[in-house]
Amino acid sequence: MVLITMPPMHEAAVLSTPLLSSFSTASSSSSEADDSPLALIQDVTKYEFPCKSLRVFESYKSLAVLSEHIGSVSCLAICGEFILSASQGNDIIVWQQPDLRQFTKFGEGEGTVKALVAVGSNVFTAHQDSRIRVWKVTRSSENVFKLVNTLPTTKDYLGNFMKQSNYVETQRNHKHLWIEHEDTISCLAFYKGLIYSGSWDKTLKVWRISDLKCLESIEAHDDAINSLVARKGIVYSASADGKIKAWGTQGKTSHSLLGVLENHKDVSMNTVVVSDNGKWVYGGGSDGYVTCWEGNADSFTWKWVAEKKAHQMAVMCMCMVGDLLFTGSSDKTIGIWKRGAYGQLCKVGVINGHEGPVKCLQVSPCTVGTGFMLYSGGLDRSLRVWWVPKDGDTTRT
To answer: Where are the annotated WD repeats, by residue (predicted)?
Structure first.
C-alpha cells in the first residue's frame, strides 16, 4: 500500500533524480507510471514541487508511506538505484528510486534482519539467526537478488573445525568456532575490501570480501554491540556497555584498540555516525542524548566536545549528510540538526508521522530540486519518504 501526500500547487521546480542505466526496468515506463509518487511530482499540471516556497513543508509531510512489510522495518540500505528495506528474514523489499515502486522481494533465514549493506554488486544481510548472507545482484535469472553464500562459508568452516584451538567457550558453557557469531548479528560496516560485523555476543568480526574469509574476531565490548561505522580507516563500535570504541590496523595486519569514547554512565550507546572527514563522532544513547567527540587522525585521540538532549526517549538511529544530522527516536520523531562550531548541534526541524519508534534512517544520493529524500523505517511496519532541503531549514520562504 502506498499512501501519497502531495503539496498544493506552487511554482514549478526541476526534479533531478538520475537512475543507473544498468538496472532500468520495464516497470519504469509502464502504464502504471501515472500513479507513482514520482509521476505525481513530475506532473506539474497537477502538482508542483516547492523548491522556492518551502512553507508547505514546515511540518514535513511525508511524500509516501510504504506499508508492505509483515513486521517492523529494522534496517535500510541504498543499492544503486534501489532502496532496500528489511523486516523478517524472508521480508527484504527492493524499491526502485525515485518512483518508489516495489521492484522485487527476497530473503532467507529466521528472525529479524538486523542490518543491510551493499558493496559493489553484492548485498550483505545480517540476521537474528547469527548468520550473514551474501546476495548477488544479477539479471542472469528471475531471482535478481540471488543468494550466493552464507558466512562463515563452508570452506572457512571446514578449514577450522578440526582444531580444538579454533574453538572458544561461550557464556552458555558451550563451545563454538571463533569464526562464528554466537548471538544476533546487529550491525554491519564495510571499508576497503573488508566487512565488519558486530553482534550481541559482544564480538567484532572482520571478513575479507574477496574470498569471504573471516580474518579476525575481537572481544570488543562488555555488552551487546549495537552499531558500527567505518570511516578513514577507523571502525567505530557502539555498545550497550555505554562506550564507543575506535579500532584500526595502524599499518599492521590485525586491528587493535585505538581509543574509547564515553560520557554518560549506565547508558546504552545505540548508534554511532562519523562525519565525512572523520573529525566528528556522534553517539546516540538510550537517555535521549547525542554526544559529540572531536577526533585527531594524526594522534588517534578523541575528546568530548558537546552533548545535546535530542529526544525525550532513546535515540535509536542516526544518519548524516554534510552538516546535517538526523536522529530517529523511540518517541516516534525524527530530529534534524545542523552541525556548528566545535561539533555543537543546532535544531532546525522535527519530523512527525511515525506511529511507532523510528528504527532506521537512510539518505538518498538522488537530489530533488534543492533538497533530497530521507527514508525512515519504524516499528509501525512502515517505510516513510520525506523531502528535506539541503540546509534542513523549512522555515524560509
So the answer is: 178-217, 351-386
Distance CA(42)–CA(303), nearest Å, equals 47
Per the listing, cell 529524500 goes with 373
Write the pLDDT tens digit of every residue in 11-27: 322 233 222 333 333 33
Residue burial 380-392, b: 16+ Cβ < 10 Å; e: rest: bbbbbbbbbbeeb
CA distance 96 to 98: 6
Neighbour-count burial for 334-354, b at 16+ CB within 10 Å, e otherwise: bbbbbbeeebebeebbebebb
Cβ atoms < 10 Å from Cβ of 144 = 18
- Contact (Cβ atoms closer than 8 angstroms) between residue 189 and residue 235: yes
pLDDT by residue (tens digit) across 299-358? 889 999 999 999 999 999 999 999 999 999 999 999 999 999 999 999 999 999 999 999
Q: How far is CA 270 from CA 23, 73, 184, 330, in A?
A: 35, 16, 15, 11
Q: Which amino acid is at 160?
A: N
2-389 in CATH: which number? 2.130.10.10
Percent of the chain surpassing pLDDT 70: 81
Q: What is the dihedral of CA 311, 317, 321, 322, to 10 degrees?
A: 50
**What is the C-alpha to C-alpha distance for residues 191 and 245, in angstroms, rounded to an integer?**
17
Q: Give me the sheet containing 185-191, strands edge to edge.
A: 185-191, 194-199, 203-208, 213-219
